[in-house]
Amino acid sequence: METQSRADSDITAEALIKELQRLRDAHCGQCHTPICHHQVLMSMALGFKNAPHCANCMARKLDSTPSDILAPLMTYFDVRDCYRAAWAWAHEQENVEVHNGVPDCLSTCGVAASPQELNAERENVQNTSLGVHAKETPKPLDELEAHSDWDAGAMSCGDLVLELRLRFQSMPPKTILKLCASDISAPQDLPAWCRLTGHKLLRAEPPHYWIQRKE
Ligand SMILES: [Zn+2]
Ligand SMILES: [Zn+2]
């Protein structure tokens, strides 16, 4: 089992890096400024892999600021071998200085996270069970009325969050989607993605997830 998951994450790291190489010299799908590997990787994690965005445009689309999306993203990369490897690969490719895990190339677009912010975020994640905040009890099953159902099968994370983002885009606010996702990393990735994007994970019983679109 141990060897199996290690092999899986190696393959995923390779796939992520291949995708980053393919998207070399990409431009922001919104404002058309050139974007670096780091911003492409951030785009992939957030569900923008079909049209990578610069940190500023991504933040704006998520009703957030570049600094506010960075701390949770860094934690997200930290605990995933494949993303951590791809993030480090990007540092090497661009030959940038890195402070607290944040590459200098991002500071030009207003992204800055203080060590305090990063630590607070790490603690936050540790106190979170399956992404549902410890203080909040998951919604009881009989109170959950899903408006929409989607069986994503074993779709892998990058594709899954892209498809999810597009689905939520076409739904009215507060719609509840019942999702079935059997990818082995879904129990970690989906709660993290919800935290990053502001959608609410009402209940998680892998492979089923009830997610409410943000307002
Ligand atoms: Zn942009
Ligand atoms: Zn960069």
The radius of gyration over CA amounts to 17 Å
* Multimerization state: single chain
DSSP strand count: 6
* Domains, number: 2
- SS class: alpha+beta
Largest sheet: 4 strands, mixed
Low-confidence stretches: 1-7, 127-135
Question: Beta fraction of the residues?
Answer: 5-15%
Query: What is bound: which ligands?
Result: zinc ion
Helix/strand order = HHHHHEEHEHEHEE
Task: Report how far apart the termini are.
Answer: 40 Å
SS element count, helices = 8
A few lines on this structure:
The chain is an alpha+beta fold. Helices cover 47% and strands 13% of the residues.
Walk me through this protein's architecture.
This protein has 215 residues and is of the alpha+beta class. It has two domains: 2-126, no CATH class; 141-212, Translation Initiation Factor IF3, CATH 3.30.110. The chain contains eight helices and six strands, in the order αααααββαβαβαββ. A four-stranded mixed beta sheet has the order 3-4-6-5, covered by helices on one side. A two-stranded antiparallel sheet has the order 1-2. β5 and β6 (208-212) form a beta hairpin. The longest helix has 21 residues, at 2-22. The radius of gyration is 17 Å and the shape is globular. The chain binds zinc ion (2 copies).
